[in-house]
Amino acid sequence: MLWTYFDTNINLHAGFSWMGTGSIFLREHAQRHLRFLQIHLKDNPELWAFSDVFFSIWLNDIPTQLIVTLYPLTIDQNEQTNGNLSSNQIVDLQRTSSIFAIRRLEYSLRLNQSNTNLTFSRYQSRRFPYLTKSSNSNDNFIFFSNILPIDIEHIPFDISIDVERATYANIPRGPNFIHFVNHNTLKATDNDDRTCWYPRKSVEKGDFFAIDFLSIQTNLTIVLMMNHSEKLQNTLDIRLSFDGQWWISYPFAIQKNSKTNNAIIRGTLRRLIIDSRQFPPELRSFRYIAFNATTHFHENFSVCDVKIFKNL
Question: For the chain, how are helix, strand and coil distributed in percent, rounded to 5?
């Protein structure tokens, strides 16, 4: 998420997805992007092969970051792309295409800021806040949070000096990046309670972590392995939802009567068990469960493992 551009004066809020990492998007967005290529790259055909590099820039809407384990596949010789280009040529074209893309988007938005019939979209159409997500190994659920590794909305952007933001010259590095690699959301879904999702900031009011079960479920048992304190956990507002937009808070007190809850497994690692059969009948079906911070807390979230069991 370091490769982002915000300028509220011209409704610029573009996010960049790094080359080779892949993305999932609507067909209508792909069709619009192909039309953009016809309009904006007619004099730069050499950049067509790199248009996926700046697809999300021209989308002008920050994508959700899905952090997963990538498994390399064997590539047939006939499937090789850019086979005639050296590594240096690829780097040069990546740099040229990303700079071209942000310049064209920024210029278009600034030139047409009073025009309602724009080439590039000016308004975001997102239903959810900015998120990082990871699925478990069986794709049974997605663990996600609105806690990002950096405050992307308040990174200053000036086209005259920050035009190379989405190039290899700006590859993430340093302690913040290393911490994110070692403690991102994937660490809560990797079936290893020795690795943990552990944001590098204290909990603020409005922060949350949540689970998407991908469809409406009933009779679930959710087991969370956590390293943050019971005191922090008890301040969280537990919410359930069918669609991720409308939420119902559920007082969690009855769950704490179980002797197995908040049991210390080792060190500071605790186990929290949520059995939806103990919920009121009207709340036993849901797709999402979220744990929302209601106040600032001088402690970090730490979730080390999530397991889901279907009750018979």
Answer: 30, 25, 45
The per-residue DSSP string of 146-169 comes to S--SS-GGGS---TTT-TTTTSGG
Residue 158 has a CB neighbour count (10 Å cut-off) of: 8
Interatomic CA distance for residues 286 and 220, integer angstroms: 10
Secondary structure E strands in 161-284: 208-218, 220-226, 237-241, 247-249, 263-266, 269-275
H-assigned helices in the chain: 27-40, 55-59, 87-111, 175-183, 230-233
- Measured between its terminal Cα atoms, the distance across the chain in Å is 41
CA–CA distance, 292 with 207 (Å, rounded to integer): 6
pTM: 0.83
For residues 283 and 311, what is the distance between their CA atoms, to the nearest angstrom?
16
Distance CA 60, CA 307 (A): 36
pLDDT along the chain (312 residues), means of 10: 80 73 79 87 84 83 81 66 71 86 89 63 76 89 91 84 82 81 93 94 94 92 93 92 89 53 73 89 91 94 94 74
CB atoms within 10 A of CB 161: 9
**What residue spans of 21-170 are helical by DSSP H?**
27-40, 55-59, 87-111
Residues in contact with 4: Cβ distance below 8 Å, sequence separation at least 6, in sequence order: 13, 14, 15, 16, 62, 152, 155, 165
Task: Check residue 154 and give its pLDDT.
Answer: 81
Angle, CA of 48, 54 and 59, to the nearest 5°: 115
- Residue that is written with structure tokens 């908040």 in the block: 262
